[in-house]
Write a structure and sequence with these properties.
The protein is built from two helices and 19 strands. The chain folds into two domains: about 5-185, Immunoglobulin-like, CATH 2.60.40; about 195-290, Sandwich (Immunoglobulin-like), CATH 2.60.40. It is mainly β and about 300 residues long.
């Protein structure tokens, strides 16, 4: 069963929207199915013209279900947002928290096993004529457990414009949620890392990553989450240390049947359960130049 809970009445909605401190103006109606709930939220109670702010798509899968990351692997579909915004407003790309390995009926994929908040930055114009602003988005997702369930919902926020010249009130609980989410976004790999990719066979390749100060760390469970379909997410990845000082990782990967024919780069996030030297994270965003002479063409 699918339910869309909306604010009580249109008249009451406009009444509370005029109150800058009202939390209800900063959330959409709640989409609910047997698999998950989905809602659009923000941590601001009003829009300050010219100031960007964050909006979050809050997905809460029920027990036994998961949703998908931007690079879902060989199964699944990444969550997406299509925006309809007033003139002068613009939405950035989804800010993706670090992924997990998820199980779709025995197939390894990339996503989120529990609640996740996907953030988007909204840019605003310096001058806003209207007193209320409607931000509309069509959210689409795939939610899987024993079975998979694609879904979509039309969600919107209606926010007042703060013309007082002083910052509008922020919702502390949401601000903390957004900051917690931002803290899990993988940082870029340091400049002193070096990377290369090498084709081994038609269907396999190796990634090499030189990481200073890695010596002494176990590399058995290092894992590469690929942004596109270059890597077969369901075949075991094998990491080894391949030089004498123990700072170069070699990661053997299988190429997906759905891999693009002529890639220029291979991009994604590399995970180390013990954390990466010099980063306050178990994850690092990383890029490899794709080797010339792709033998699979």
């Amino acid at each position: 069963m699918i339910v869309l809970r909306t604010p009580q009445t249109l008249a009451a909605g406009f009444a509370f929207l005029l109150n800058l401190g009202t939390v209800a103006s900063s959330e959409s109606g709640l989409f609910e199915s047997d698999q998950l709930t989905v809602q659009l939220i923000t941590d601001v109670t009003a829009i300050n013209p010219g100031d960007p702010f964050l909006v979050g798509l809050l997905l809460k899968p029920k027990e036994g279900y998961h949703t998908y990351w931007k690079g879902p692997g060989i199964v699944g579909v990444a969550t997406d947002l299509k925006w309809q915004l007033p003139i002068g407003f613009s939405a950035g790309d989804i800010i993706w928290p670090a992924p997990e390995r998820v199980d779709m009926v025995g197939i390894n994929a990339h996503g989120y096993n529990g609640e996740i908040c996907l953030l988007v930055e909204i840019d605003t114009p310096e001058k806003i004529e209207s007193e209320l602003v409607r931000l509309s988005a069509k959210a689409t997702w795939m939610c899987c457990g024993i079975t998979c369930h694609p879904g979509f919902a039309d969600l919107e926020l209606i926010l007042p414009v703060n013309s007082s010249g002083t910052p509008a009130h922020r919702i502390e609980e949401r601000r903390l949620l957004f900051q917690k989410t931002l803290d899990t976004v993988p940082p870029k790999s340091p400049d002193n890392w070096t990377t290369s990719a090498e084709l081994v066979t038609r269907d396999t390749f190796e990634l090499k990553v030189m990481v200073p100060n890695l010596k002494g760390k176990n590399v058995d469970n290092i894992y590469f989450f690929c942004y596109d379909l270059q890597v077969n997410s369901d075949i075991l990845q094998k990491a080894t240390l391949t030089n004498l000082n123990g700072s170069q990782i070699s990661l053997s990967l299988a190429r997906s049947d759905f891999a693009p024919d002529s890639p220029e780069t291979l991009e994604g996030v590399i995970y180390h359960p013990a954390g990466w030297p010099g980063l306050n994270s178990n994850y690092a965003e990383i890029s490899f130049d794709w080797p010339a002479g792709d033998i699979r063409k």
